[in-house]
Amino acid sequence: RRLTRADLDALPSYVPGRNPADLARELGLAEAIKLASNEVPYGPLPGVPEAIADAATNVHRYPDMGVLALREALAARLSVGIERIATGCGSVALCEHLLKAATVPGDEVVFSWRSFEAYPIIAATAGVKAVTVPNDAGHGHDLEAMAAAVTDKTRVVIVCNPNNPTGTSVRRAELERFLDRVGTDVLVLLDEAYREFVTDAEVPDGLVEFGDRPNVVVVRTFSKAWGLAGLRAGYLVAHPDVADAVRKVVTPFSTNAVVQAAALAALKAQDEMERRAAQVIAERTRLTEEVRKLFPGVPDSQSNFVWLPLGERALAFGKHCESRGVIVRPFPGDGVRVTVGTPEENDTFLKVAAEAV
Ligand code: PMP
């Protein structure tokens, strides 16, 4: 008799970006560039390495299980009560915990596709049915169709705003209409992993504008603009009852002591985070303009990456870039996601991309 679940055999594993040092060695280059995982290229924020070193002296002790200092700092920054906040091992873990907290096997979760590649995986591992709604012609969410896909079995709808990997975003009025239409019996998970890069005033801050609805859950991360991808720190803001349920399903101590200290230090460097995000945003504008000269149909991005809708050419383009020492993220048959890097990295990418045209 097999010892593990048979349905996991067919489940794809999460694919991380390639390690640039390995690629450089393979190609015999001094260095390779990684524009594949939506990281910010400037290193940790000031104060973070010191906070990590400091926390390291005490790692023989368990961390604060309640994550109080960090949740208090987040509560103050976001102007919400601490009881509404849960933290976890990256925001992807919180998405998974929310499914665990809200569903039983056989329930449904609705999300747009293509979107964040972890959604189908966490739906399957939670034992819920993924109901996917195709992206619209502009590569973004079709909220009308998503609302229409909600059934009696739907417990969660995920709205990824801005959407990974297409960078598109939903506007205030359409999100409001959507929330009104789905009502309050279904949880709406607003995944705002890229919130800090949003500049379009029409794109709502889900927490400020809709966070008071009892069924709205906002998930954000320290991995992107806050520069802590390697540590795994995410947070969720929800109605106190929902946050409480999520905290119950989180693996104990999963926001570890080093993470708590580093995330607190990062929050203290908010001005520098914003300065860096502004650099990324300026480069996003430039990169978008330049890639549009090479490829048709590149959508506007409100995140720290751009989407090249290359269809059947996506994989070959990704391989070409990799052969020239630039790691991007192809989604075979669909498109290629390119993370905004430093100006020099973006220049290198644009040169390599032009060769492929
Ligand atoms: N949500 C979205 C939309 C993402 O793109 C990502 C990372 N790629 C995550 C969540 C997860 O980020 P993390 O677990 O590092 O917080």
UniProtKB/TrEMBL annotation:
This is Aromatic amino acid aminotransferase. NCBIfam families: hisC, PRK03321.1. CDD domains: AAT_like (cd00609). GO terms for biological process: L-histidine biosynthetic process. The keyword Transferase applies. HAMAP family: HisC_aminotrans_2 (MF_01023), Phe_aminotrans_2 (MF_01513). The modification N6-(pyridoxal phosphate)lysine is found at K224. Homodimer. Its cofactor is pyridoxal 5'-phosphate. Its EC number is 2.6.1.57.
